[in-house]
Amino acid sequence: MKSLLLSSEELEALLPDGRDSVPPPLAQVDEDWCIGCVRCIKACPVDAIVGAPRQMHVVLKGECIGCEHCVSACPVDCIEMLPRGGSQVPVVDGARQRYRARKQRLRREQEARRARRGRVERDTSSVAARQAAVAAALDRVRGRRQSRLGLFPGDSDS
Ligand code: SF4
Ligand code: SF4
Q: How many domains does the chain have?
């Protein structure tokens, strides 16, 4: 699968050129084969695909820039690039906006994941610290008992 975060230069290279006589092709999902794996959503640089896990995914005709990134991401080969015909040609500025919004969303998700990982690590280390404190306390108790037993050997039967 292509990178989730394209650079803006890479996006510019994908955007349709207004001078092209033929509009860019349009991705279309074959609903009979889609397994709802969401890989196409992750690969689309302009969030032009909607769907949820284990549900059929749909391409937003007015947003698809025809980059074909979703085609190689699909594990069951159910996305086809078709001539656009009368469908709406994507607005380049809209595609740039969607790209920026997606980039911000991915960053927010990444930060949330990092924060969650940090919390788990902190929780784990505080559990480890508590376990170490309990083990140290038990060691101290054992040490005291043994030294008492050393001082009063007759107590060892009790
Ligand atoms: S062709 Fe590109 S823009 Fe269109 S849906 Fe696929 S990944 Fe998105
Ligand atoms: S990658 Fe293919 S199978 Fe997976 S959700 Fe997208 S269209 Fe469906």
A: 1
Residue nearest to atom 3 of ligand 1 (CA): 64
Taking a C-beta distance cutoff of 8 angstroms, is the pair 48, 98 a contact?
yes
Q: Closest-lying ligand to the alpha carbon of 44?
A: 1
Average pLDDT, the chain: 86
Report the separation in Å between the CA atom of 27 and the middle of ligand 1, taken as the mean of its atom positions: 6
Structural domain of residue 69, as residue ranges? 1-150
Show Cβ contacts of residue 24 under 8 Å, excluding neighbours closer than 6 positions: 16, 64, 65, 66, 67, 84, 89, 90
Q: Does the global pTM surpass 0.70?
A: yes
Residues with CB under 6 A from ligand 1: 27, 43-44, 46, 48-49, 59, 64-70
Task: Give per-residue pLDDT as tens, 31-65.
Answer: 999 999 999 999 999 999 999 888 888 999 989 99
